[in-house]
# Entry
Amino acid sequence: MSNAHMRGAAPMEGRGAYNANSALQAAGGAVGVPLMEAAAASIAIDEGDRPVVCADYGSSEGRNSLVPLGAAVRVLRRRFGPERAIIVAHTDLPGNDFSTLFEVVDSSAESYARDDKNVFPSAIGRSFFLPLLPPGHVDLGWSSYAAQWLSRNPATLPGHIFARASKGEAASAFARQAKTDWETFLSLRAKELRRGGRLVVIMPAPDEAGLHPSAVLFDCAEDALQEMIAGGAITAHEREGMIILSYPRLPAELLAPFGPEGQFAGLKPNHCAHVPLGDVAWTQYEHDRDTAALAARRAAFFRATFAPSLARALDRASEERTNIAFLTRLEAGVRRRLLDRLSPTVNFVTTLLLEKT
Amino acid sequence: MSNAHMRGAAPMEGRGAYNANSALQAAGGAVGVPLMEAAAASIAIDEGDRPVVCADYGSSEGRNSLVPLGAAVRVLRRRFGPERAIIVAHTDLPGNDFSTLFEVVDSSAESYARDDKNVFPSAIGRSFFLPLLPPGHVDLGWSSYAAQWLSRNPATLPGHIFARASKGEAASAFARQAKTDWETFLSLRAKELRRGGRLVVIMPAPDEAGLHPSAVLFDCAEDALQEMIAGGAITAHEREGMIILSYPRLPAELLAPFGPEGQFAGLKPNHCAHVPLGDVAWTQYEHDRDTAALAARRAAFFRATFAPSLARALDRASEERTNIAFLTRLEAGVRRRLLDRLSPTVNFVTTLLLEKT
# Structure
């Protein structure tokens, strides 16, 4: 387990899979768009012609960044005119599918860059738990469905796969890791933000009872993994290293570092909320009653978002064929189990708007 | 052939293949390192703390950029001290393997970024025949073994695969395309360069007799493709679309746009030379007399650099399995034929140092 301890989350699934199967994340991000517009409207920017710099922390393949970044660019254009250069830096782990990102950003009909020749997209392939951009360089930051991923696994987790569902000492270890990671993320972003800059963060959140809406997916995955052990597709040792390091947060958790003075590392929260999301897939199901399609959609979401991190624990994780076989089998197992366990879910996000003072 | 006409060059082979098989390009780039140092020493930079911006146009997977960028960063550090932020933007086509690039830049022992926390690597996935960075944004540019690739194929080329070896009307069409592309490249880079900035360009060149040192590789590939047609591995129609759009240039060709006044689009050439390169692989062969190893090395270079562009003409070019099967078979065919045709080769590069006035 020693190397499992060192392992952080994996990038989302590549070759367009995340873009095709992240409608939930898109819906969550949509909640943040008005915050992003407010942020773009309020950042302090000197006159002159230096480029305005936007950063998108944890972009994956980019599709879900187009709407919020597009909204920000429209506000910036109103404020600063069509000629001012705007740089957009999308960041993600080195293994992210940047080719899909660049294609989507330059070709998608909804892209912020498509009809604006003075917007300049770029990418940075480095963990956001490290410095990514020069000090004081960023005017406007966005991070959606990204900073919930822990930088490392601080505990073993026998019996199940979801870090946030752990109990006892493991739960304490994960909570400490989550606190450390969040403070690291904030400190680094604070340093990168220009004075008067803004950062919008969207994170998945537990519901009011502290439960995670994807819990049923994780249960199905747990069962599917047991079956894969029984069938010899994976070993019990590999299974032990499989932990979903997504750690959704409630507003109180995101606000904790700011303390009673409402300040941390030069950042000040201007807005924080816990927001429920509609269940788009279920609405579609009520319309078409296609159980198989709903199960397939949820399993595909599970695969693109969570399964790559589980695949890291495979002994032959570096072999693409092994990886794909694992993802495909796990997805099928989750889909099959979901058929009997479909229900509407209310997902929540925590939204946060920060100002660099 | 209509879509073949629209097609430009493909990215170099991914998954580390280009990094592993581009020693020739590294040797050519090494010729430019003193120019890059001279450029870094002479760029005009205001005081203050804005980041110094370096651009690497056509980076592929990054390994060959580490030495020249490292040399530039050392000079910049001497001039501006350890604290000044330096941004490095590596650019290549969207389909380039950026994951390998980011890993190499952050992890390689010889990387410019490894021991310097104030250097910030990034990437831009867009053709360098389009704008890549804001106007007046770049202090120092580098482009090695990249700008010889044409943006499109302007002619059919029956009977052989190498654009620069064509005759008659096809030769004129390629020469016109090469001229247009070079002027486009220069104009775009001129706009991106800050006044007082510098750009170093390294291009492969024909020898004094106008011959290309890789001609024997192209002949072997041509034979291998004929055999693949005969064996049904590819169709004659697919073969027709296979053209190597690399167009090496002599100094006179690169200097042509500058005219008698020595000015083009605000750029002024400070240095231009035609430089022979040693044949590292042959030197190794003289030591070990391992014919198979030499043939394998040359065939692997051919594959990583030229074969992906040929693979674009496959009817099922979007299928990775089809692509890899094609590359593997073509490489094997080239290797086998090379065994009887090995000889020392003298490659040439044209080097160019430009100043933005």
